[in-house]
Each structure stands twice: as structure tokens, then as C-alpha cells.
Design goal:
Layout (H helix, E strand, L loop, with lengths): L2 H12 L1 E2 L2 E2 L17 E6 L5 H9 L4 E7 L3 H15 L4 E3 L2 H6 L5 E4 L3 H13 L3 E4 L7 H13 L4 E3 L7 H11 L6 E9 L19 H5 L31 H12 L6 E7 L12 E8 L4 E8 L11 E7 L2 E6 L3 E6 L4 E7 L15 H14 L9 H20 L3 E4 L4 E2 L3 H4 L17
Parallel strand pairs: 3-4, 3-6, 4-5, 6-7, 7-8, 9-12
Antiparallel strand pairs: 1-2, 9-13, 10-11, 10-17, 11-12, 13-14, 14-15, 15-16, 17-18
Helix pairs in contact: 2-10, 5-6, 6-11, 9-11
Length: about 450
């Protein structure tokens, strides 16, 4: 099976809404850009992954970053200077993302904001006629993911999800091997997130720093007194803003689990874990094990989050393992795989994109630059069908993490209906499929 047919099969099978499958959009030959026309880009959120977004855009031919946007001027001002020093070009800065969307000279935006902003910013950008690269997780809750799909369709926009391993030739080869039966009938996938998340302490409240628009940073989430327990990175570990590591690093792995097994949402979910190490301000579990069952497909996903002081599993600490009735396949990180066949674990085929980076994030052709290349190609051709990480993947891979978190927080096994995207006779669980939004920052019930 070719890479393209494999990708189309996954999207058609997985993106279910109501009673009908989401059909891939047809090719649209018209484009706003000629082959050599410049695309103007803006990067929203520049503290973490935004730095890689800047690199990803600037590595593309005839793409120019014209604006950096962040609610914190303490980040923006030095970033503007660093951009000038690195690229020899001036770049504008803006605190308010709405002004970026209103700027008719900006063609595409990338979103590296905190999770609670991803869906609303994507919807606003689509409404403003911008194409979007959105960092993982695409959504903060399941309802938001469906709204993102609706916005991309209604406003005919290109939306790429930041799961860069989908642009790795080695990972694509691994998927093709499994589709072709190399390890037999693949019945189980494991997702691994063994990363160090240390004690972040309890910092308490403090005055809002000069230069930070904290109201804008808070956006759709409930507004609480300012604390360094949230701003800038530690929001990941608080439910109103982040989704824990299964919804952070883990989205790469939830995405690959579903892609490799060729499944959508499960029908039965259970999770267990907790905080066992540090008495800090984190709300999310430090250790979490989630099980996602697919009785009709006779498949299962196991997902595990635990700190880095642990053993690797066939060399993988962040990655995936797929089990078939003839062997198993290990994806280590973002750009390499290996296989083992039979009871004696005979080494089989393997692949590696090559290259190294200190972060381990952007090695080889499967890194961020390659994923941005795919995005820009789709933008130029105005062809959603060639995206490696289309908006449907943002909904599904993020949604799998959300389902596991809901099961953990409620402390019971949950039954889920993938067609309706609701739980079965469980209003308490259904209430966690969305959230209450602050006035002026509402994600609509329907786009």
C-alpha cells in the first residue's frame, strides 16, 4: 500500500461526524500564490515551540516571517532582536493575535501558544482567511477538535497539525510495512512518554509582570491571580490550560498509535495514575497508564507516561511499539524504526532518516522543517489532500489524550460512541467534552 493511499484510508476511516464519514476535500487547482510568489507568515507564541516554527518557516523558499506575536513583550522584544541578528532581516512584533488576523498582508500563521488557545486561534485564523499550522495538541478538549474541522471546511483553509513525525520518510516506511503485513496482523500499539518532569514547586501568586498582557494570555480559560506556577511553561501541568504529558509530548505517540493501527476513537477507555514523587503545584498525574479498547476492530492501545528515570523499551523512551502476530515494530522518537520477527526476536527491516540534533526533536527529514515544507506546498497548491498532518489528525490524536484524561479524572471505565462523539449514558463525562469559556473568548458550539 502506498503512503498516499495509507494516509487517505486513515483519514476516511477515522474522521467520523454524526452518521457520515468526513470525505477528503477534492483537489482545487486554483491558488493565490504563483510558484515564486512570497508567502508572508506570522508566528504566534514564541517561548517554546515557536522558536522551531520560526526556523521551520525561514527554511522554506519564498516564505518570509513578517510578524512575531506573543502577549509578553518581555519575550517579543529580545526575539525581534535575535531574529535580526540571525537572519539579517527586520520583523514586526504584535501582542494581540486579533491584529495579526486582521492584517491582510499575512497569508499564513503558525500557533505555538498554550493549549487552551489552539482551537480558538485556529478558528479565528480560518475566519480571517489565513492558512494555519497549529502545534500539538490541536485542541484542549474534544468538542474543540470538531469545531476546528468545521472551520477548516467552512472557510476552505489549509490546516496542518504539528505532528512532524508524519513527515518522516522512515516513519512513513514503517507504516507501509505494517499495512503490507510485515509483522503480521497488528493488534496492539503502545505509546511511550518517559520524560523527566521534575519538581516545579509552589510559587504562589505575584503581581503581573510589566509588559505581559495577562488577560490576553488567559484568553478562553478562567482567569486566576497571576502565578509563575502557570506562566510561561508550567501551564502544561494545570487542567485549565494544559493536558498533562499525554496531551503534550504524548500527542505524537497517540497520533502514531491510531495511524499505525488504522483506527479512530475507541469505545472503551480506562486510566489510572497519580502524583507519587513531588509535592508541587502540578495538577496532572506524574504517572499515567491509559487503555483504549476497540472491540469491533479487535485492537487495543496502551499508553504510558512516566518520568525519565526508568528503563528504555528496546531503546525507546519516547516512541511507539506495535505488536503483530509475526513480530513487533519499534518507532524510536520521530524518525527511525526497527523490527523484530518471531519468537527469537530476529532483527528485521529498519529505517532512520539520519542526522542529529541536541534536542532530539528535529532530526532528519521528519523534523519540523520537513513538516513545514509539506504545509507550504499544500498552501501553494491549495490542496488539503497532500497534507501529512491534516486537521482531522489534530482532532483524533488530541481527542484520544482527552479521553484518557477524562477517564483518569473520573476514576472509572468509560464507554464512548465514536459516531456521536459522546459518552454512553454518562452526563458527567459528557460535561468534560467541552468547557465554559470567558466572554469574548468563546469557542462556538458550531462554526
Amino acid at each position: 500500500m502506498s503512503k498516499e493511499s495509507s494516509r487517505r484510508t486513515f483519514i476516511k476511516k477515522s474522521a467520523i461526524a454524526g452518521t457520515a464519514a468526513m470525505v477528503l476535500p477534492t483537489f482545487i487547482p486554483a491558488s493565490a500564490f504563483g510558484a515564486n510568489d512570497r508567502i508572508n507568515a506570522a508566528v504566534l507564541g514564541i517561548n517554546g515551540r515557536g522558536k522551531s516554527h520560526i526556523q521551520g518557516f525561514m527554511a522554506q523558499k519564498d516564505v518570509e516571517i513578517t510578524t512575531l506575536c506573543d502577549p509578553d513583550l518581555n519575550l517579543l522584544t529580545p526575539a525581534q532582536k535575535a531574529f535580526k541578528e540571525k537572519y539579517g532581516k527586520d520583523v514586526g512584533i504584535e501582542q494581540d493575535l486579533k491584529k495579526v488576523f486582521d492584517n491582510k498582508d499575512i497569508d499564513v500563521v503558525s500557533l505555538a501558544t498554550p493549549n487552551h488557545w489552539h482551537a480558538l486561534a485556529t478558528i479565528w485564523a480560518c475566519q480571517a482567511g489565513k492558512d494555519v499550522y497549529v502545534e500539538k495538541p490541536g485542541s484542549h478538549n474534544i468538542s474543540e477538535g470538531r469545531r476546528m474541522i468545521e472551520a477548516a471546511e467552512k472557510y476552505d483553509r489549509i490546516v496542518q497539525h504539528g505532528v512532524q513525525l508524519r513527515s518522516s520518510p522512515a516513519v512513513q516506511e514503517a507504516i507501509e510495512l505494517m499495512r503490507d503485513g510485515y509483522i503480521g496482523r497488528v493488534y496492539m500499539a503502545r505509546g511511550l512518554v518517559f520524560r523527566m518532569r521534575g519538581d516545579i514547586g509552589i510559587k504562589g501568586t505575584s503581581p503581573v509582570p510589566d509588559g505581559l498582557d495577562y488577560d490576553l494570555w488567559t484568553g478562553p480559560a478562567p482567569k486566576v491571580p497571576f502565578t509563575r506556577d502557570l506562566v510561561h511553561y508550567n501551564w502544561h501541568w494545570h487542567w485549565d490550560y494544559g493536558n498533562g504529558d499525554v496531551g503534550n509530548q504524548g500527542i505524537h505517540e497517540t497520533d502514531l498509535c491510531m495511524w499505525g493501527l488504522d483506527v479512530g476513537f475507541p469505545t472503551k477507555i480506562t486510566s489510572m495514575g497519580g502524583k507519587y514523587l513531588w509535592n508541587d503545584s502540578k495538577q496532572v498525574p506524574e504517572v499515567l497508564t491509559s487503555i483504549y479498547n476497540y472491540p469491533e476492530e479487535n485492537k487495543i492501545i496502551q499508553f504510558e507516561v512516566r518520568p525519565w528515570y526508568t528503563n528504555a523499551e528496546d531503546g525507546a523512551t519516547v516512541g511507539n511499539i506495535f505488536y503483530g502476530d509475526k513480530g513487533y515494530l519499534v518507532v524510536d522518537g520521530y524518525d527511525k524504526y526497527k523490527t523484530f520477527l518471531g519468537n527469537d526476536r530476529t532483527p528485521g527491516k529498519s529505517g532512520d532518516d539520519g542526522g542529529e540534533a541536541a534536542s532530539g526533536m528535529d532530526r532528519g527529514a521528519g523534523g519540523t522543517d520537513g513538516h513545514f515544507t509539506n504545509f507550504i506546498e499544500a498552501v501553494r497548491k491549495h490542496d488539503k489532500s497532500i497534507l501529512n498532518g491534516p486537521v482531522e489528525t489534530a482532532h483524533l490524536s488530541s481527542g484520544l489524550a482527552h479521553l484518557g484524561n477524562i477517564a483518569y479524572r473520573l476514576g472509572r471505565v468509560l464507554d464512548f460512541d465514536p459516531k456521536s462523539e459522546k459518552f454512553v449514558n454518562d452526563p458527567e463525562a459528557d460535561a468534560m467534552l467541552t468547557r465554559e469559556y470567558r466572554p469574548g473568548f468563546e469557542v462556538p458550539d458550531k462554526v
